[in-house]
Protein 1
Amino acid sequence: MTRPPWRRRRRLVVAIALAGALAAALMLSVGMGTFAVAPTDVVRALLGRAPDELVFVVRELRLPRALTGALVGAALGASGAVFQSVARNPLASPDLLGISAGASVGAVLLLLGGNPGPIALLAASAGGASGAAVLIAFLARRHNGRTPYRLVLVGIGVAAALTSVTSYLLVRAGLYDAERLTLWLTGSLNARTWADVGVVLPAVVVGVPALAACTSRLRLLELGDDLATGLGVCVGRARGVSLAVAVVLAAAAVAGAGPIEFVALAAPQIARRAARAGDPAVVVSALCGAVVVVGADLAARVLFSPIELPVGVVTAVVGAPYLLRLLVRANRPEVA
């Protein structure tokens, strides 16, 4: 389906504006801390034209945190856009459907054994997320197919069960592991390194363009399976491929920074309204998610200084009222 020129222009303008906001947020994030760094000095340090101490602070201590936040937000935004499009439900997101909870179980099982490498952590998160996705698909299946609200309800139940499994693992863990994993499970960007960037970067670089290429098929899937099939879409393959990529993106986000709630729920909705898009707007959703996570991290560091809250706490505080708003709108009777 061809988009009108004005809609394409608006989408481009929104994407450029979000990219500019993200660049500004990254600059502020890198310059903020006990030792404040001016934006000009940040640029000099990134180019290697500053004193060695400043280069170390910017490149090794602060830049990995900021980039991890941006990549995690992009992964969550794109993943949430696909889940909401395939489920045809604005309440569908990897955190509410239990995908992030499954990834957390896989990661926690691995982290309890020590300090695994980034590839092993990503594999464990992806395995847990994939297992949760298969379980949800099986439980939500009916003789007449999967309805959007049935899928969401089953996902919420699976998420609760998997969260209980994670809690059980924490109770059985030693004191040190329990404290470390409790902080990780709140969704934190503290002490991120280049290894954490390496966990999320490949998934975002490959996954977001792949999902963007499937945008037209996802738009047709929102019209219903019968109509999409009549328009030439292989429904099963299109849905399976897009969901597989979305699951990997959600798992990569969990592996990179822990489960950060509500970003995958809110970012796609904000992107659709800003771009006035009739399709998932994957790239705009990814940029919006990146801005939300980096902005939430900045708020956590500024508003509660000298206490540095995990970014997941801020997104939960902001996202919970947004979820209630969606629920109220979903239950509001239509006016003839």
Protein 2
Amino acid sequence: MEIRTLLIDDEDLARQEMRHLLGAFPDLHIVGEAADAVEAAARIRELRPDLIFLDINMPGKSGFDLLAELDESPRVVFVTAYDEFAVRAFETNALDYLLKPVRPERLEKAVEAAREAIQNQSGQQAASASAQPYVLRPDSLVFIKDGEKCYFVRLTDIFLFESEDNYVRVYFGKEKPLHRKSLNALTEKLPPELFFRANRQQIINLANIADIEPFFNGTLRVTLHSGMRVEISVRRAGEFRERLSL
């Protein structure tokens, strides 16, 4: 299995060294490089890599800022000279964290973790150079940066999106970080077989529904497995019944 790989680092020599080290792994196909977050975002959308080796501290936007701008995150191995980022990087559930200069034995462990994670991921995104907009998959990883806290989360683990001013509160597990995208923008990207726009303020995960009951004036009230209750508006109730064959 070929793993499409992108190198992101503002230092040309660091990218050259990483390319040399990765030559020991023939299944890692380096599809491109980027020297900053702006270039990296364009390359990720164009090349759709499975895996990125990402420097954190770059001029302008950081590696964390880059991930926060993406609709969907590839698998990530952080590579940096600054170990102060270590705890923060692992809070994001990154595959691994490598300190410069990268040791071959540590790189081998990171590559092995990448192989396992990518092979275990069901319904993988087909390798494509198309930059056209696309709908996320249920198993897609999204990156959320809320202040100093960063998270990688799989879409299937999110049970509710809730509009909050111009941003969205994202509920998964016991967490509820604020995502810097609008609810309308998310609606266009989320897989329709999994998520439903319940009303103007909320999108629910259909697989997380524990109970449904009639509510006021033709609305429905849904109880999620978390215990949270969401009202399905009159305007959306008919489509909701069709989706669930009620």
